[in-house]
Amino acid sequence: MVKYLLFLLTGLLFIRLPLRAQGNGPAGHGGRAQALGNASATLGGEVWAVANNAAGLGSLTQPAAGAYFENRYLIPSLNLAAVALALPLGVVEPAAGGLPARAGRGVLGLEAQRFGGILYNETRVGAAYGYRLGVVSVGGRLDALQISFQDLGSRRAVVASLGGQADILPRQLTLGVYLYNLTQAKLADYQDERVPTVLRAGLAYRPGAQVLLLAEVEKDVERDAGLKAGIEYGPTPAVALRLGYASLSQQSTAGVGLHAGDWQLDYAAGWHNVLGLSQYFSVGWQWGEREAIKN
Amino acid sequence: MKKLLPRFLIYHLSFLILSLLAGRAAAQEFPRRAPEFDRLAQELFAEIQSDQIPYENLYGTLLSLYQSPLNLNAASPEELRALPLLREAQVAALLAHRRATGPLLSVYELQAVPGWDVRTIERVAPFVTVAGLSPNLARGPLWQRIKNEENNAVLLRYERILQQRKGYTAADTFRGRPTLRYLGSPDAVALRYRVSHAHDFSLGFTLEKDAGEPVAWRPAQRQFGPDFLSAHVVLYEQGRLKTLALGDYQLQFGQGLLLSSGLTAGKGAETITTLRRASLGVRPYAALLENTFFRGAAATYQLAPRWEATAFASRKNIDANAQLATDSLAQFDEFSSSLLLIGLHRTATEIANRQRLTETVGGGHLGYRSHDGNLLLGVTAVGTHYGTAFQKRPEPYNRYEFRGRDNLALGAHYSYGWRNLLLFGEGGRSRGGGLGLVNGVLASLGPHVDAAVLLRHYDADFHTFYGNAFGENTRNINESGLYLGLKVRPLPRWEISAYFDQFRFAWLRYRVSAPSQGQDALLRLAFAPTKTGLLYVQYRARLKPLDLPTSTTGRPVPLPGQQLRHSLLLYADVQPTPRLGLRTRLQGSYLRADDGLPWRRGTVLSQDASVALARRVRLSARYAIFDTDDYDTRQYIFEQDVLYAVSLPALYGQGTRAYALLQATLNQHFTLWLRYAETRYRHQATVGSGLEEIKGNARSEVTAQVRYRL
Predict the structure, then answer these.
(1) Quick one: pLDDT band at residue B86, thresholds 50, 70, 90?
(2) How confident is the model over B674-702, as pLDDT tens digits?
(3) Alpha helix (H) ranges present in A16-81?
(4) Which of residues 448-507 of B touch A (CB under 8 A)?
């Protein structure tokens, strides 16, 4: 285990890679978001909006649950697992006047996540709420975050985040913004260690019914700005093929999504030139009456 | 497209009526204009950062397409894909249109083909024609067809730099020995003749003397007058003998991993269509590059309706230096350590190295093509034998380079078009076990989106001498990479192209003393306000490690720095009146040798104007101002030149560059080109270095060319 951490540290020192510790930063959960280079501020209509941008919950009209697993660079200490639940509140208002259907009183999301191994791990429990108002969706999330080092103790912090999405051209162009940790929660006085504060802003463009193009910029207060891009292509409604790239982590991703009835399976693989293979897998389940329109 | 239909119908009906009136309902003559090569090159190459790429070869291929245009009624899918201007969906649409409505009646009918927008047609028009499907024999016997061919011309070109260069001054002595000087005159002369008809025949010869090369009759040194002589005879469609080439020819199979020629634009602003190579087989060679062809014979024979076999043999002498082993343990007593590819034989040393190494190449290709042309499979074998052993200098970066006298490369390739997808690839293995693999897919994801993915891997010990498959390196060796391309047309007249390429070099390279990796990305936004106008903005960023000068690192061992280059290009091409064309171009690049080191920059702003003075006289001119910090930030800029010539000067320092080009069609036989170009430098007492050095601050060249159509 120590060997793995050392490996990672040497990677950090010598390759000058802007790797971010997982968990601490804004999550990119779900095989779909990961396959798209984690350009996820504009994504919505699926249960993983609870982690990616709570505003995306607003376009969900069915209750949904999902589980997500991630492994980085084939190192067991870098495993992550998360479960999420999204519940539309109130009556579902059907699509009208060019606007998609929505839950009358918004959508509530819950998520629990654990990252790491025995030496180091992060646990997080979060609640999110998203609401759609015409062409605009807004959302927020509150996390309780705990970070533990073996034999060194643990820290807890509360992290608040806000998100918004707006349709610039209906069903064609969407703008998404997500601000993670706007309270700048502190973890330790030593070196003023804080949970990263990150702002993400992205555009989603649909040039045709089958294609989705994503571009997003991300800025962490203490890091360089990064660019992320993704493309999704659905040859049939049941299958989606995805490619993505994130400039900050220099990782290319590719993935496939399968939609079967109420089930959604997404797999993504990421390749880093130096650190190698990462894998992401999520499964989602929706129930209740179908009205949702994905974005 | 729907909007265009009524217009098309009007066009079409009017032409039908006209043709009925004229008493001939056959194919319509579309007034084929000469392609604007500099504009096309502008669009095909993203940004030129090196003069290593054989642009002349690409020009040659495009020109021969212009000379003997592709018959849209007879063209195979592979030939259509060879035009680097068509999307996969457009190729499929044309084939479907041909199947549904029979042969095209005129080029104007292209507007009725779904997905063929006006811009595409404008770009493709110079290279295509619409003709009947009548076999060659229907046009009379071969000698008569050659005699009657319109496309039959002799071309004579003269070129000279006006200032005296050091190489042409009288030799002085240095330590008792005379210094090196050019042995020939500073005039460059080329004479070529060619007559060709697509799918029928091509005949031609070329004579060339570069500046500084002596004209001499020295049969012992295989020199017969001018320095470079080339000729070819190629016949097509002689029964089952599909192609027979004698003399100089080129070969292109599969993705060009083992055999490649001509049309290889590589990474450029055409982020999709230039990725895939077309398997075109044996092609005549009529260009002036002295090292990119085979000399001997090649033939393609149809074994069965869908099977074709090609065999070729070539033997020529190539330029190489000679080395004698000083170490008794050396592998070879006598060897060549470098092939000299520039093709210039001006000094005693260059002449001594001229055609020193005998190169014998033989091989073959077996290809299968499905009845609809969508599935292509093939295997290729290429064997090379050098007269004396070849061994590169014993540097670490040459550790896995080819050494010895023989190489055998074997490969297999495929291409499969399925609906809106085109899958293609090639794999090869060279003697010693090095592997090369290239696989890709082009996809039309929707009416407005095209995407491409290409994965390549070339081992550090993969040796192919005539291959030029897709890659970041100029040769397919020591590289792995992933390329993603995208093209979106969000609104009519607007186009966004982008690519992202990441590559890795597993072994050292020249001037990169460690395994390295890099990235290259491009984004271009183009707007075509009118049929002839084009405006675009292009940004390119490239991270590619390169050794830092030891003076900056202070280390005895070289250390690669993360060289980062940002380039921006603004381009406007408008035609305010039918007789006047204006072109403005601003390009600049910022370069940093390593993180933390200072940025260096280079910019050039140029303005072109082109005026039709009379019906047959056209004058084009440019004035450009450049300002660069050093040679690394030099700017390459395409220039208009006389037909068949390529001008791509590298501008660095501070100064101006101007040229004027006059084209006059005197009568139906004679066309004349005159060109004067001049570069003036500020704060420089000399221009150039070595034997090319000019005393003064200017360098000017004149070119004259005359074409006589027989």
Answers:
(1) confident
(2) 999 999 999 999 998 888 999 999 999 99
(3) 31-35, 49-52
(4) 448-449, 451, 453, 482, 484, 486, 488-490, 500, 502, 504
Over 60: is that where the pLDDT of B568 sits?
yes
Tell me what pLDDT residue B8 has: 45
A267 touches chain B (CB under 8 A): no
* Six-digit token string for A79: 């495993």
Residue A216 has pLDDT above 80, yes or no: yes
Length of chain A: 295
- Token digits of residue A288: 């209740």
Calpha distance A58→A41 (Å, rounded): 13
H/E stretch holding B250 reads: strand B241-252
Q: pLDDT (tens digit, 9 = 90+) per residue, B490-509?
A: 888 899 999 999 999 999 99
Interface probe with B: pick from A173, A211, A272, most Cβ of B within 10 Å: A211
For residue range A59-101, list pLDDT tens digits in order: 899 999 999 999 999 999 999 999 999 999 988 888 887 788 8
Strands (E), B165-220: 173-174, 177-178, 187-197, 201-209, 216-218
Distance, CA of A35 to CA of B163 (rounded, Å): 60
Taking an 8 Å cut-off on Cβ atoms, the answer to whether B446 and A211 are in contact is yes
Q: Indicate the helix (H) or strand (E) that contains B579.
A: none
User: What's residue B25's pLDDT?
Assistant: 37
Residue B100, token pair as written in the block: 């549904």
The C-alpha of A235 sits at a distance from chain B's nearest C-alpha, in angstroms, of 8
| B644: Cβ contacts below 8 Å, ≥ 6 apart | B59, B60, B63, B155, B157, B192, B705
CA angle B363, B365, B371 (to 5 degrees): 170
Name the band, by pLDDT with cuts 50, 70 and 90, for residue B332: confident
Beta strands in chain A (DSSP E): 64-71, 79-88, 92-93, 102-103, 107-116, 120-133, 136-149, 153-169, 173-180, 186-188, 193-194, 198-208, 211-220, 226-236, 239-246, 251-260, 263-272, 276-286
Which chain B residues contact residue A208 at CB under 8 A? Answer: 445-449
B347 contacts B181 by C-beta, under 8 angstroms? yes
Please check the confidence at residue B125 and state whether its pLDDT lies above 50: yes
Could you list the beta-strand ranges (E) of B253-391.
281-284, 294-304, 307-318, 323-324, 334-336, 357-369, 375-391
- Does any CB of chain B come closer than 8 Å to the CB of residue A230? no
Return left, alpha or beta for A73; rule: phi > 0 is left, psi -120 to 50 is alpha, else beta. Answer: left
Contact B453 A243 (CB under 8 A): yes
pLDDT of residue B135: 73
Longest dimension (CA), chain A: 59
Residue A274 C-alpha, separation from nearest chain B C-alpha, in angstroms: 10
- For the segment B41-49, the average pLDDT, to the nearest whole number, is 64
Separation of alpha carbons A30 and A268, rounded Å: 9
Q: Do A211 and B486 touch (CB under 8 A)?
A: no
Comparing CA positions, the residue from B612, B604, B610 lying closest to residue B660 is B610
What global pTM score does this model have?
0.85
In the structure, what pLDDT confidence band is assigned to residue A274 with cuts at 50, 70 and 90?
Answer: confident
